[in-house]
Amino acid sequence: MKDVVVIGAGKIGGAIALMLAATNDYTVVVTDRDQAQVDKLDKHTAISSKVVDITDKTELVKLLKGKFAVLSAAPFNLTGKVAEAALEASVHYLDLTEDVATTKKVEELSKCANVSFIPQCGLAPGFISIVANDLAKRFDTLDSVRMRLGALPQYPSNALNYNLTWSTDGLINEYIEPCEAIVEGKFVTVPALEEREEFSLDGITYEAFNTSGGLGTLAKTLEGRVRNMNYRTIRYPGHQAIIKALLNDLNLKNRRDLLKDVFENALPATMQDVVVIFVTVCGWKDGRYLQETYANKVYSGVVAGKAMSSIQITTAAGITTVLDLLADGKLPQNGVVRQEEVALPDFLNNRFGRAYDPEALRLKLDLEVLPMD
Fold this sequence. Notes:
Blueprint: E1 2-7, H1 11-21, E2 26-32, H2 35-39, E3 47-51, H3 57-64, E4 69-72, H4 76-89, E5 92-95, H5 100-110, E6 116-118, H6 127-136, E7 141-153, H7 168-176, E8 179-183, E9 186-190, E10 197-201, E11 204-210, H8 218-222, E12 228-235, H9 239-249, H10 256-266, E13 273-285, E14 288-299, E15 301-303, E16 306-308, H11 310-327, E17 335-336, H12 344-349, H13 358-362, E18 366-367
Parallel strand pairs: 1-2, 1-4, 2-3, 4-5, 5-6, 6-17, 7-12, 15-18
Antiparallel strand pairs: 7-13, 8-9, 10-11, 11-12, 13-14, 15-16
């Protein structure tokens, strides 16, 4: 059994801990600075908890020493501190951050590490980067890579057509910070909430627009090889216009704490959500201009004996799959490991990666988490 630490006892951190514990291959210590949050964790013989303020580096390093890995489900503005402690404790490091600045810091720290540093193991960046890179490798010459993803309520009931499904701080960060893209072969930054488009999938109309962080490191990996590349968040039509009014006309982009308070007291959370993934790559193969598309919808379901939302399932499955592949020796054991280094077949064939199988969740099957062979 491998000992790991999960930072953050929220919904995602709790889901990660339970999925790992259910395999009987991992023992998990979950840490959070909030005792009340820790008390909400699911009970399992392979899960223990400890209240630690992760800004206290000495205490965090002490907790990490001797462990196999640390998985950060902490807010993006605290994740860098976990990476620093992981380097000092010499344990493998994985996180879920979408924050560009944090990822750059993690990459710098990894340069002097004798363990693996694997940032952005969530959905976007994360799984969507693995999918896009897999499609891109099928072409002789690339033209465009379009990555679209959204975590949405199945039954929207307000003007924003939205319910809170994950970190409010992370959501606001995506709506405000600059977005990376490749335009006519050049790596550029573009403003968030712009370049709105509409598309339909399974008879449902969606809008998509620029948000920060979704490309991860894939843009740098494919720079010089693709003409246009971008990431946009999927929402139901009408969402973007209201968010732009809140951020720009009411200037809430400069009052993030107020905006967070408004969101968390006006938008209810929901377990009835759906994650929509839509990736399209165009290019030339054998002299023909072709298109390859990956489209998937993942719904809420039962994993490790517990009902989970789709954002819990997909995010937790992303980081646990990468951890499994690392433990199995299928990923580099030191230095920075980018999501595009993860092979899509390896991911989808993994016991956690099976959560992305649309048929399993559509049939409401209990996704049994099996021990490693």
